[in-house]
Every structure is written in C-alpha cells, then in structure tokens.
Amino acid sequence: MLTGLNELMAEWKLFFRVIFARLTTTVACSLSSGAIAVFLSGSTGMSPAVRFFLGAVIPMGPLYLFYSSPWAMRRQFESWKKTKEDGLITDAQYKRIRQALVDWYVEKWFGQASLGKVDEETEPT
Question: Which tens digit of pLDDT belongs to each residue from 50-103?
C-alpha cells in the first residue's frame, strides 16, 4: 500500500515539475498574483475562482505594457551586452539573444516577426 502511494506521489511530483518548468515569466507571475488574491481577499464574499481569475488577469495589462516598452527593451539590450562584455556569453550567443529580443518586440507591437538573420554589417557598436 505504501509503495503504491509513494509511486503515485512520485508521478505527481514529476507532473508538476514538468508543468511548472514550462511556465513563462508572465504566466508564473499571473498564477502567483491569482493565488495571492485568493488568500488576501478571503472575506469579500466572492468565490475563490472569481478572486483567482481577477487576481491573475488584472496584472497582465501593466506587465504587458512594461515588458513591451522601448525602455524595457533598451534595458534588456544593455544587460545582455554587459553580460557579453563580462565574458559570460559568447558573441554568437549575444547575437542570437539580441535577435530574439528584436523579434519578440516586433511581434508584440507589429504582429508576426519576420526579420530573419542578423545583418553583420549593420550591427550597432
């Protein structure tokens, strides 16, 4: 009996590890804020599902605007450039990350990103 229970717990642990390992930062923040909303607003008379939904959805607007702003993008570029200059990543890794940042930014503001490869001649210094 105990062996079967241990196997079941191991399967559930693996299941949750796989699920939570695949969460993006935005989804993880949303789930966390939803859970916090459930615990902090216990006496409002709303069902826990409604409290979780409101707590999970409301922060998404400000987070989306913050992370897709030109200011946030510039901070990401500067951070990754410093990481490259410190020798923690290679030049090829930096270029791949920089292109991913540009593609993400273009996709969020203008739709599907279709920039292709980095043009070495027009790379900013």
Answer: 888 888 888 777 877 777 788 888 998 999 999 999 999 999 999 999 998 888
Q: How far is it, in rounded angstroms, from Cα 29 to Cα 59?
A: 8
Q: Where are the domains of the chain?
A: 25-63, 68-122
- What pTM did the predictor assign? 0.52
